[in-house]
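Recall the central idea of this unit: under ordinary conditions, the amino acid sequence of a chain determines the structure it adopts. In this exercise we apply that idea directly, starting from the sequence alone.
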Amino acid sequence: MSAENPNLLERFMRSASKIEPNELRAVLLSFGFVFTLMAAYYILRPVRDAMASDWTDAELSTLFTATFIFSIAAVFLYGAAASRVKFRWLVPGVYGFFAVSFVAFYLAVQVSSNGVLIDKAFYVWVSVFSLFQISVFWSLMADVFSKEQAPRLFAFIAVGASTGALVGPLVPLLFADMGAANLMLIAAVLLLVPLPVIGMLERIKVTELHNEAVHVDLTEQQAIGGNPFAGFKLFLQSPYLLGIGLFIFLYTGISTFVYFEIKNLLAGVDETLRTQIWAGMDWAVNFLAIGTAMFATGRIATRFGLAVTLALVPIVIVAGLLVVAMAPMIWVVVGLQVVRRAGNYAITRPGREMLFTVVDRETRFKAKPFIDIVVYRGGDMVTAWAFTGLTQGVGLGLGAVAAVGAGIAAIWAAVGAYLGRAYQRDRAEPEAKAAEYA
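Accordingly, the structure predicted from this sequence is:
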């Protein structure tokens, strides 16, 4: 349909999301692409998390350590592949590789007698997969759409990710009795669905978008993604970046504490029911996060500022953990987990990303990956062992550990408030200089 005579769908999309008629097919394909990716991941995630209740805190801490090591190695390997493989083959190769890997897990479950080893390998591998699935997708989007199109179109495409994360958990929630192995196979098949879409997007890029001159700078991409330690020096030299690193470290600490507490509380529950509980949490988290992001996050950030935005969820977590300390019951902890994750997706994470808008380009592209990958995964590992020490070493119970977590969350809130004030100060300085010379 031409731009002069758009159909009903084109008119609606143009008015709602500023999508031009020649962009519509590419946007809808991209929406479906990321929807499928996230649905596949959220089918696997509850299966992975349900396995954790079969292991001790020390065993799970060891898996967190393995995830940290494999994640760093995978980033370097991806950077090496990006420098040797054409981008048009790199993206389908990544998703095809992960699809084959989950088929291999399915077959291993059928024939192997060492189920525990397979479960632990699967746990680590899904965690590694989660690091790459969205990163590679957005690299492709940067290669298909122009800089002018991205601000208009990426927000709508991102809704596909949230929708997939909402739909995906329904599969294990409603069909957990089909078994973990079959859920792995379903996810593997879903990861194959986007492969022809990648070729279609490459053609549409030229024939409809006329973006043949748009290309991802793989040299820059490799330098950014392939070597997360490149920003280590910048990170150590900046109190502001150290504050962001501490904020993320404390966030991972709370995440690990709550995750381990749920894992231990579900230890006596049947694995099928465990999978359904984790899937139900994922569904509730994404439903709540979408609603909060649409109707509350922007209002909170603009009305109260970033200091309040970053401190808000940690303060709620302080209150929640104190309730857990007094009433250490499974549904109280589950409710806290839903609020914590939804709050992070809808409020804390967007606010955290805003912190990098006041730093220079070198810091943004060299120090940020170090913080996002190394500090985050390192925080997982360190706090997992800390939880293990408190439970298996010192012998603290759930209520006492929750009280310790409340103290950590209070520090997390204070760091968030400090970073928000620093952000406002750094943002105000160039605006004041601009007004002075106006």
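The chain is about 85% helix and 0% strand.
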